[in-house]
Each structure stands twice: as C-alpha cells, then as structure tokens.
Design goal:
Number of helices: 5
Structural class: alpha+beta
Order of helices and strands: HEEHHHEEHE
Protein name: Heme-binding protein
InterPro entries: GlcG_carb_metab_protein, PduO/GlcC-like, PduO/GlcC-like_sf
CATH class: Alpha Beta
CATH topology: Beta-Lactamase
Length: 143
C-alpha cells in the first residue's frame, strides 16, 4: 500500500511527541508529507517557536525532492554548497538541509512519504522522526 492516510500521519505525529517527551526535548513540530510532497498532517507542541512549520515541512520536502534523508542533504550542503543553494532557489526556498527530515519506506522499500521534525537539536529531531516512523511500522531513511 502506497497511500499515507491521515490516521497514520496523526499516529506518526503522536509517536514523535511521545519520543520527544521520553527524551525531554524542547517543544517540537512535526510535518508528515505523502510521496508527492503534499502535506498530510502537521502539529506543533505548545511553546514551539516561530517558523517551525516551514522548517519541519522543508526538512521532509527536501528529503522527498532529493530522494534522501536530510542528513545526507546536510552532507551535500557541506560538500557542494553551490548545488544546495541552487536547489534552494529552484524550490522557492522550501528545502531545509539539516537532519530531521526522513523518508518513510514500506516493506517493499518504496517511499510512501517523509517526516520532518524540528524544535530541538537536529540530531534529536531526527531521533524523534525515526522513532515515530518505526512505531508506525515503516522503515526510516535519514540519509
């Protein structure tokens, strides 16, 4: 099944919030996108700072756009900054090249969507995204 339902997206967000509580993270925001880059669900915890939607969305969107988790995009930004700058331009600034955006894959290895988490350190954001994706029964690919 390649469809990402609203029910599944909301469960992913709930699991990310649970992981954030378990790790005692700062307030996070979570965006869940389908394989076509369409927003399925978004929520932010109370106390989240400004621009969290754009950052969470940009982490997930970048993962889908480039077919790799945002940790790999972060490495590419260091190795090829002009390329990532150009991607930012052609995407209208929608790609955020830091860890916290992960591809979601089904049992057949097909990308069914992506999750972007922001609010704490990038490593902690990624940990919350990974835990949430895996709790939903999918494989997480952060790059």
């Amino acid at each position: 099944m390649n469809m990402l339902s609203l029910e599944t997206a909301n469960a992913i967000i709930s699991s990310a919030f649970e992981e954030a509580a378990r790790l005692a993270l700062k307030p996070i925001a979570v965006a869940v996108l389908d394989a076509g880059g369409h927003l399925v669900a978004y929520q932010r915890q109370d106390g989240s700072s400004l621009m969290r939607f754009q950052i969470a969305f940009g982490k997930a969107y970048g993962a889908l756009a480039l077919g790799m988790g945002s940790r790999a995009i972060d490495r590419a930004a260091r190795d090829r900054p002009h390329f990532i700058a150009a991607l930012s331009d052609v995407s209208g600034g929608r790609i955020v090249p830091v860890p916290g955006g992960m591809l979601m894959k089904n049992a057949a290895g097909e990308v069914i969507g992506a999750v972007g988490v922001t609010g704490d350190t990038s490593d902690n954001d990624e940990a919350a995204a990974r835990a949430a994706i895996e709790a939903a029964g999918f494989a997480a690919d952060g790059g």
